[in-house]
Design brief:
globular, two-stranded antiparallel sheet, mainly alpha, Clc chloride channel, about 575 residues
């Protein structure tokens, strides 16, 4: 440790004025440096904070502590996902008399039979009158699909999310979906789990780097529990929310997703989430991969269109609404949403029962296309008027109906050689979401896990890869990041300092040019000085270069002209942060 200021003279006993000997002070400084070095490498618990409990240092400074906190977050996210699903069931039942609604077409509410078909227009207005003021008064960030707000909290706010967001988001989203909002539940559960994780981290006073990992744990755990898809939860938390892969993050999010799914299985069962899809569908002819590639391009265009329509609709709603009170916007906009539901009641709520009927072949070709286009409009309108819900389930709905239509067309043109139409429905689900969210790992895992059919892995991977590449070529932002881009934040563009994290010192440094030579005697040769003050003519000697710990030249000459062969390659980030010490 370097000390500044005037040096103190030790007394006659060899002690400094403070009473300690210089040797003891040096030993204390050396021990302090060693402690800090061990803290940075994780080999010793970080010191406990003032006023913190005795176990706090273990939680702050060890991987095991992070793992345990992540596991607790997973348990909480699992319970939150179960509670949120039952909350949706409750509000849907309260409004319609059924826990799932819309698949039967123009069927009125059994609780409000006197409304008749007017129910489809009235119930979104009633829902908006409740959740609109709730969001406006207590947590305005609960409006919309929620995932961009979590991404922003991780990228710019150190993972800090207000605790009340989880409660407000749960109630508002359940009300919105239960009263006809044509959105999904993945966005709300991501925000609910992330807010819960952030609250735990803030209570434990976790550092920002660990707080971000905990938020990803909450998001991944919520997804895993909601869809009985632990791999999807891991990839969603790391690929979309955290947006970086590290050993600590990966293992912790894995633990959180596994425990969240285990908790949810105890309440909801262990079958595949989309168990209503027909089993045993497979791509039997290798030539059909060409059809999969064509479908992937079409799905990419649909995904990009979905993203654009969502934000164009939001802009339109903003212009129409103007400066009127925001708390009333969902209720007034509910009239427009209700008219869409009156025309297509199959768009009510999340829509999974309608997806089952679509892939079962219960709808004709033209109606499949109408459902796909209608879902884009209904979901965009729900979000544009200030509703609360996700875009993952609508992406699956759009992909399933449009993919089924593609399969029907291929079957009409090519006959049985084209394969079963439900195959293309499953493939298009992953491709549409991959195009919209540009998260290929999450897309592949979600389709395979949700259907429980791992024989479709290869065609889904091909479609997701093509759709992701096509979407990237057509647009910059995703359905999640575009919301942040419109606010002036580009989290896809890495911060300038991150470039130093992966840059090797050998790549950043440039070697010195060859040493200059001057006539005269070698440096350090002091024998036989000339009486006339002139140097005798001798062989040229190297001009001394920078002084380092290496010495490979003549006596007194030290240079950096040659690299040390045995020295390990170090990263600029390690050198700049002091992680490498000699």
């Amino acid at each position: 440790m370097l000390r500044t200021g005037p040096r103190s003279r030790p007394d006659r006993a060899g002690k400094a004025p403070g009473g300690e000997t210089p040797a003891a002070r040096v030993e204390e400084d050396r021990a302090g440096r060693a402690d800090r070095d061990r803290d940075m490498t994780g080999q010793k618990e970080a010191p406990t904070r003032r006023g913190a409990p005795p176990w706090a240092g273990w939680v702050y400074g060890s991987r095991a502590g992070l793992f345990v906190i992540g596991a607790l977050v997973g348990i909480g996210s699992g319970l939150g996902a179960v509670a949120f699903r039952y909350l949706i069931y409750f509000f849907t039942w309260l409004a319609t008399g059924h826990v799932a609604f819309g698949q039967d077409g123009h069927a009125g509410s059994s609780h409000l039979p006197w409304l008749g078909l007017a129910f489809f227009v009235v119930i979104p207005v009633i829902g908006g009158l409740i959740y609109g003021p709730l969001i406006y008064r207590y947590a305005r960030e609960a409006r919309g699909h929620g995932v961009p707000e979590v991404m922003m909290a991780v990228a710019q706010n150190g993972g800090r999310i207000r605790p009340q967001v989880s409660v407000v988001k749960a109630v508002a989203s359940a009300l919105c979906i239960g009263t006809g909002g044509s959105v999904g539940r993945e966005g709300p559960i991501v925000q609910i789990g992330s807010a819960l994780a952030s609250s735990v981290g803030q209570w434990a006073k976790m550092p920002e780097n660990r707080m971000r990992i905990l938020v990803a744990c909450g998001a991944g755990g919520g997804i895993a529990a909601t869809f009985n898809a632990p791999l999807t939860g891991v990839f969603f938390g790391v690929e979309i929310i955290l947006r970086e892969f590290s050993i600590d993050a990966l293992f912790t999010v894995m633990a959180s997703a596994v425990l969240a799914d285990v908790v949810a299985i105890g309440f909801l069962g262990d079958r595949a989430f989309l168990a209503g899809f027909p089993p045993g569908i497979a791509l039997r002819d290798p030539r059909d991969y060409l059809l999969v590639a064509v479908l992937a391009v079409a799905a990419a265009l649909i995904g990009v269109m979905f993203k654009n329509v969502v934000y164009k609709t939001e802009d339109l709603c903003d212009r129409v609404w103007g400066n009127r009170p925001e708390w009333a916007r969902p209720a007034v906009g509910g009239i427009a949403l209700g008219l869409v539901l009156l025309a297509l009641p199959q768009l009510y709520g999340v829509g999974y029962p309608v997806m089952y009927k679509a892939v079962a072949g219960d709808y004709v070709l033209w109606f499949l296309l109408v459902l796909a286009a209608g879902k884009i409009i209904a979901c965009s309108l729900t979000l544009g008027i200030g509703g609360s819900g996700g875009v993952f389930a609508p992406s699956l709905f759009i992909g399933a109906t449009s993919g089924m239509a593609f399969g029907e067309i291929a079957g009409h043109l090519l006959g049985p050689a084209a394969g079963p139409p439900p195959l293309y429905a499953v493939v298009a689900m992953g491709a549409v979401f991959a195009s919209a969210a540009r998260a290929p790992l999450t897309s592949v895992a979600s389709v395979v896990e949700l259907t429980g059919d791992y024989t479709l892995t290869l065609p889904v991977m091909l479609a997701v890869a093509i759709a992701t590449a096509t979407s990237r070529a057509l647009s910059y932002g995703t359905i999640y990041t575009t919301k942040l881009l419109r606010r002036g934040y580009d989290i896809d563009r890495a911060a300038p300092w991150r470039a130093f994290g992966d840059l090797k010192a050998a790549d950043a440094m440039r070697p010195f040019p060859a040493s200059l030579t001057v006539p005269g005697r070698p440096l350090g040769d002091t024998s036989s000085p000339e009486s006339d003050g002139r140097l005798a003519a001798r062989s040229p000697a190297p001009l001394p270069g920078p002084v380092t710990h290496q010495s490979d030249g003549p006596a007194g000459t030290r240079s950096l002209s040659g690299p040390a062969e045995d020295a390990p390659a170090k990263k600029i980030g390690e050198v700049a942060t002091g992680d490498e010490r000699h």
